[in-house]
Amino acid sequence: MLYERWKKISADRRNEWAVRDLGDGRAWTFGDLFQAGERENVDGQVIFPGGHSPEFLFRLLAAWRANKIICPLEAGQKIPEFDHALPRTIVHVKCTSATSGDPKLVAFTAEQLAADAENIVATMGLRPDWPNLAVISLAHSYGFSNLVLPLLLHGIPLIFGPAPLPEIVRRAATVADAITVPAVPAMWRAWHEAGAIPRNIRLAISAGAPLPLKLEQEIFQSHGVKVHNFLGASECGGIAFDATPIPRTDAANAGTPMRNVALSVNNDGCLVVRSRAVGETYWPEPSPSLGGGMFETNDLVDLEDDHVDLRGRAGDLINIAGRKISPDAIEQVLLEHPSVAACLVFGATSRDAARMEMPVAVVVSNSPEQELKQFLLARLPAWQVPREWVFVDSLAVNARGKLSRAEWKKRFSAG
Questions:
Q1: Whole-model pTM over 0.90
Q2: What's the domain range around 67?
Q3: What is the Cα–Cα distance from 234 to 238, expressed in whole angstroms?
Q4: 161 with 220, same domain?
Q5: Which of 158, 163, 322, 376 is deepest in the core (most CB within 10 A)?
Q6: 229 shares a domain with 198
Q7: Do residues 301 and 352 both lie within one domain?
Q8: What are phi and psi of 45, to 5 degrees?
Q9: Which tens digits make up the pLDDT trace of 363-375?
Q10: 3-state DSSP of 173-194
Q11: Which of 260, 281, 312 is a domain's end point?
């Protein structure tokens, strides 16, 4: 089904350009890309395309042609073991981001992949004359659904950037009259600080991690570009999108539901997603939280007037003497301080005799701890102010633009 659809796209747009690589200057029309996929050969039942180059596409297309299962991998990612045979309907396996625990494998049918791409193109208004700049990972669910599938199933061209550097964004802006840029908050911050956000970005998207409100507003004021917040998950693809033309005024606002996606809240206050794009099952161990077109997340939300307001993750809540607080709520206030470039809050067991859970803040800031504490005390109840502070030069994110609370908590506990 996927390869047949690609064959039609490539035939209809045979002479139109499909891919340009800013790294080495190579370019392919849709006809060229089809031929490159036809020449590629793959062995094995499960194919693991990786890397950040057009060769990822060649390998993927060869696997589609040969009816192989796809499992994209990022650099350095361990190849999963498929000890059990996957159902015959499965064509694609995603690895979750593991921001709050161990990674999982999610199995998808062709129809589910196509539905996610359809929802993204329709909701965001992706257009062939606004080519996508590819600087995020193609292997991650975000990059695969926003870059790879729109190219192959909807004819949205790709401009490959070899690295997410400011000069690459500037060069990409010269390739077309208008471009679309899906990125993560860390990239948007770096480009903004370098003054490298061109005004011919017609669609700017941020996902993978919460987009700081201050950063969104500064980019709009300095560059005239509205960065649209996008909420998604590996298990179900796109969930919500902020399509408004001006910056948000509430950092919790994740936008409105994607086209063809129905949202609700369960008894625990967590978001439930229903759509044709929801994955088939976790593999090899199914879970009642995923399947039958439904994914039960652990995102705590409020649904008001069709808007999704994020209130943190159920597993991240910090229990302080019986009172619970989401670390996201503390982070949002801390990011309002002018000297705080980035921060991460998590719960950890105190080292004193009480051995109670307490909030810990990891901060990128040149302000002293006492100043930041006083700033929070003026805006939050005293029990919500972090007890322990760790100052760092930067908060390194992974290729998906994510920070792992679980990893930072482990590092803090290890001293």
A1: no
A2: 2-312
A3: 9
A4: yes
A5: 158
A6: yes
A7: no
A8: -80, -30
A9: 999 999 999 999 9
A10: CCCCCCEEEEECHHHHHHHHHC
A11: 312
